[in-house]
Design goal:
By secondary structure, the chain is mainly alpha-helical. Helices cover 63% and strands 7% of the residues. The chain has one domain: Arc Repressor Mutant, subunit A (Orthogonal Bundle).
Length: 81
Amino acid sequence: MSAPDVSANVNGTVPTPNRAAAANGGPAVSVPLGLSLSQMERAVIEATIDMCDGSLPKAARILEVSPSTLYRKREIWDVGG
């Protein structure tokens, strides 16, 4: 765990996607502590998609995953929540 991670835990938020972009003044997303890992993942993915005006391919590039991963996760969330 790095110093920013420890600081984030003390402050009650967890820094999320694309730390490099956030460190360089790019957008950052915070999620509250106390969520399960899957809830945090969903919050980060949905916030990133929103930040990209709904573009899953663009969000996938930021999150460094394939667009198919995001499409699949959204399908799962739509079916099972």
